[in-house]
Amino acid sequence: MISLENLTYHIKGKHLLESVSLAFEKGKMHIILGPNGAGKSTLIRLISGELKPSAGTIRYNDMPLHGISVKEQALFRAVLSQNLEVSFPLRVHEVVLMGRYPHFVGSPRAIDHEICEKSIHLFDLDELKNRNYLTLSGGEKQRVQFARVFAQIWEPIDGKPRVLLLDEPLTFLDLYYQYHLMKTIKTFMASNPDLTVIGVVHDIIIAAKFADQVVLMHQSKTFAQGPTHAVLNPENIHTVFKIMVEDQFIVK
Amino acid sequence: MKNSTLLLLISLVASSCGRFGNTDEKTDSQERIVCISKQYAEIIYALGAQKEVVAVDLSSTYPPEIKALPTIGYHRALSTETILAMKPSLILHDNNIGPEHVVTQLKELQIPMKTFGNYTPTIAGTDSLIREMGHYFGKEKQADSLCVKLHKEAQEAFAHSKHYTQTPKVLIIHFGRASNIYLVMTKNSTAAKLIEWAGGEMAVDAEKGMKQLSPEVVAAANPDIILLTDFGYDRLNDGKEIDKLPGISSTKAYKNNQIYRIEEHDLVYTGPRTGENVLRIQELIHPDETH
Amino acid sequence: MKPINNRITGLALLALLLCTALLSAKLGAVPISLQEIKNAFMHLINGNEIIELNERIFLQIRLPRVLMGIFVGAALAVGGVLTQALFRNPIVEPGLIGTSSGAAFGAALYFVLGATFGSNWGEWTLPIAACIGGTVATVMVLFLAQSKNDHRRGVASLLLSGIAINALFLSGVGFLSYIARDPQARSITFWNLGTLSGSYWEALYIVLSVTSICIWFSLRLAKQLNALMLGEQEAQLLGINIPQLKLMVLCLNVIMVAVSTAFVGVIGFVGLIVPHFLRMIQGADNRFLLWGGALLGAWVLTASDLLARLLLAPAELPIGIVTSLIGVPVFIILLKRTNYLF
Question: Can you give the residue ranges of the Fe/B12 periplasmic-binding domain (chain B) (predicted)?
């Protein structure tokens, strides 16, 4: 379980996040929704340790995040950021192998290669394995990055909850792959019950369809949180997004 | 700065290629001497001991037939392998060679190297050097007659100088062979001695023997006479473009049209022809008072 | 296109290097035969006094020179791989971020004023002076180039700062050669153009040991440098301690390049084109680039030195001229390519 206590972040007098307290249960998919500038990405970047909070604490299983070394964090926590570019020509399988870097010293072991193969297969990249990453389309690149972060947290780590953080991961993908990928994640979660997924998406419909829990952000604060069907009601959506929804979302 | 140095070096190496290509026709039975000193080289030829010399440095240009020999490059930018390619059994040098690592390498390879005595650039000192070299090459008789000639001509020149009523200020502009920059020679150079003997006075004073040419140095010196060494004179379109050098056109020498060419090898070291050279300089700097 | 196996490329490079090194040992102003090389080694093993001049030339001049070329080439190329990976930019090389010119200045300062400092660590004094100079210049460039977050501007200001600091330190070298007494000045000007001709065994031992140790350490950083290609943030998320990595890479780079520069002078373009070329044929995986670059760099410098000795034989060109003549056109061709394809 990941818990946030009074998490606050401000930079140059701008309050990007104010006193957010949340708990993310293990084995669930949490989706953070909110209009632009509501503080979604800031929240993800705080949880990943990329930003240091101005106040408040983040705990992974009761361990404060700042007490875990960067190296150790990488063993059980993977992050998929927006707009990833690679500065030099690398082959797809080399990019995916990076996900295993935290797990081996020196040369990759057989198990590392095996996991990469599986992850490449999972994201339907077998054909592209030897391609130059720089020559891929935006969507293909995004799938490669998915394969990389999944390779990173492919296996359970003793005594550590696996966490996957996604910051708008569906941006470059067409509709088919958006749904396909979300399904893939759900399937993976089913067989890996210790994995917690926390993601930021733009699309309310995707959130409604796949999230177990939703956090609704508004003006740097949490507006509502809880099970998807409870949070995504017309009143909340109207307050936060300024749009009227005529029908209740159909939540499976 | 670095690029221009590179360019200069390329042009230097390229221009010296001609002499690199010269072939040597010495047989293996004799001594094979590489001579890296223009002063030694001239004396060796004057002594008639040149048949064992297989190569000289780039600045050894007298007598003219020396140019038929292969060269090993500029004496301060030597390369070990270039020297070794001449298969030397002896290297003669006057301690004015570089870079240091080449000297070290030659020593480590135990290539015999010899330097003759370090004499002052005076008539007496030159006499001693010629005699030492004559002894070394077994040409004592030739050495003796060279010295006699040297003394006779020097005395003649000194006698002239006593009668001169004026001491013209002479500026000598030298065009260095290694880096194509103009230098002026100062009162601390061998050339200054020759000018002094010829009854003139150097226009520029400095700690070192050479000073880089600054237009201000030239204008302030306001020389009566300007001598240009051959390399630079020829480069300036046979001296016709001398006024392109800044500072020159305001000098007395330029106004009176007293700018002359002089061979570098007549001026920068002493040797058997020094007396003769001083007499020639007298003709240049005392045009009205020489007979 | 199916990728060529890294091992095969490596073996091909090694074979090429060995052939060129052998050729380089034989050819030059003084040609040396295989028999003479063999005899020289036999004499060396048997501990006999070596009589033949050519054998002595081989052992005391040619061999240290060829080996020096190999290790300096490897050091420069690996330095190039390290800096390019660190700055995530393919047009950075040790010469551009001030390391070489700073090292040249440090070494020149020791040449001219060494006696005044009174400090002396024997053969190591010169490389240590070069390292100090290289560090000062590199730190100055990095300090000047600091900008807020913007990666693009970061690279531009890095290159501009590099130009400024290089100009400063090269003028410094020029100034030193101007005030130097004669014999020292001769060393500075000659060595500033870059040449392997002054190689001797003691210098080789220093370059050899420093280069080998630094390359060994660099190889251990390959994985982390790969991760850096995703950006500093991403690399950190993969568990990499970024400040520590940067410090190590800069130290390795400065030490390797400065020590080489101390003994052979400033040699440009090797650190730039070698990683470039390898990346084009094999991709950017640093796990290969580092040792492949060492081999290719060694070959490039050995071949350049051979050319420097043969083009105007028996005269000799400074090797910096040869590497620039080869490097500049290659660099321009590479610059015209907008994307890496392989």
Answer: 32-289
